[in-house]
Amino acid sequence: MTSTADLMERRARLLGPNVSTFYDDPLHLVRGSGVWLWDADGRKYLDCYNNVAHVGHRHPRVVEAITQQAGMLNTHTRYLHEGILDYVERLTATFESDITTAIMTCTGSEANDIALRMAEAVTGKRGVIATDHTYHGNTTVVAQLSATNPPGTGDGSHVRHVPAPDSYRPLGGEGGMPHAQAFADKVQEAIDDLEASGIGFSAIILCPAFLNEGFPVLEAGWLAPTLDVVRRAGGLFIADEVQPGFARNGEAFWGHQRIGEQPDIVTMGKPMANGHPVAAVATTPDIMAAFRASFRYFNTFGGNPVSCAAAMAVLDVIEDEGLQENARNVGAYAHEGLLRLAEKHECIGDVRGYGLFFGAELVTDRATKAPATGYAVRLANEMRHRGVLLNKLGVHYNTLKIRPPMTFSKAHADFLLKTLDAALDHLGPAVD
């Protein structure tokens, strides 16, 4: 069997330097099924991280859909085919507004790239607002939205960043609607700056659950003051649903529905086809028409029959297996379990989450809320060695990121919580 050292050497030689891996001892995975993964040594891991395998690794219905369609036809959308039409019709039926059109792509990065161009086509302006701790993809244009990992190309002069929401340390010092208004005020300042610069304001792009920012607890209506500001300025709201969408939040099919807000454009990706590279951008007929009149766009692989078959199978599984309700129930169960662990372990400063995206913020001191960033890294590695895969994120990279496949059960949650308890006991108090 090839050693880890040999694989790492080959990666560096064949893929180039600085290709990241998870954990201090990288995993060599060879097989997956449901919520489980196996490495080359035959060791089994509970997958509490990968939302790409949205309905579980190697789901038989998705595998069958891909196999059947690949055995019949796969080509691009300049030929007529019902698959893409049937899928877009079913996909857009999940929205509660006049978002009835879509463009199929291969990645969320492509979808967000198109969304920004749609906003420019409608407004005639280029200025975009994002939070200062977000990620929306890696094309040259979309990468400029990142303040934490800025690209080496493009000047980014059309992008303005606002502070990421943080319910644990709220902007202005007070949570709830004062926090919401403080965020809206920052957005207004960014809009004013874009307009004064001559660039102009076209759109704000946000994950409706602010998941990369650490999934703060934000009640329904929290985003309303911000969207009032955006729409008064003539801008659009782009909802990046790559992570909270497809029923993961448990309360609704989409993240924006959970918070009760209506976007102008919705982008999506990763979980759409359970590992097959499928993504999309959905919008209203008027916005789509403006985009089509301003930009020529074609994607050879976007919306191909095999991809659409895989994506349709995922919708079937979510519905037939009741996975939205499962996300709501199991997510609430796991959340309660984390709260019990917080009573025992002082390093858990805050517990939060939405459906099957939940976690705990780790601190060295609850009174000061000092982030335990290094401790979070050690804990993620300790959990990996104990057979549970998770990671960390958030503004301070100290919040456990637990985002399992949607077939995650209460028994799986029990295993996660028992292992986490033992790992915290082993590591002891949080000291960075």
Description:
With 432 residues, this protein is an alpha/beta fold. It has two domains: 4-55 and 322-427, Aspartate Aminotransferase, domain 1 (Alpha-Beta Complex), CATH 3.90.1150.10; 61-320, Aspartate Aminotransferase, domain 2 (3-Layer(aba) Sandwich). 39% of the residues lie in helices and 17% in strands. It has a seven-stranded mixed beta sheet with strand order 4-10-9-8-7-5-6, sandwiched between helices. A four-stranded mixed beta sheet has the order 1-2-3-14. A three-stranded antiparallel beta sheet has the order 11-12-13. A hairpin with a 4-residue loop joins strand 12 (357-365) and strand 13 (370-371). Helix 2 (60-70) runs antiparallel to helix 10 and helix 6 (176-197) packs parallel to helix 7 (224-232).
Rough shape?
globular
Q: From the 3D coordinates, which CATH architecture of the largest domain would you assign?
A: 3-Layer(aba) Sandwich
**Overall mean pLDDT score?**
95
Task: Estimate the helix proportion, in percent.
Answer: 25-40%
So how many helices?
Answer: 13
What fold name stands as the CATH topology of the largest domain? Aspartate Aminotransferase, domain 2
The CATH class of the largest domain: Alpha Beta
Supply the helix-strand structural class.
Answer: alpha/beta
- Can you summarize the main beta sheet? 7 strands, mixed
**CA(first)-CA(last) distance:** 37 Å
**Overall number of structural domains:** 2
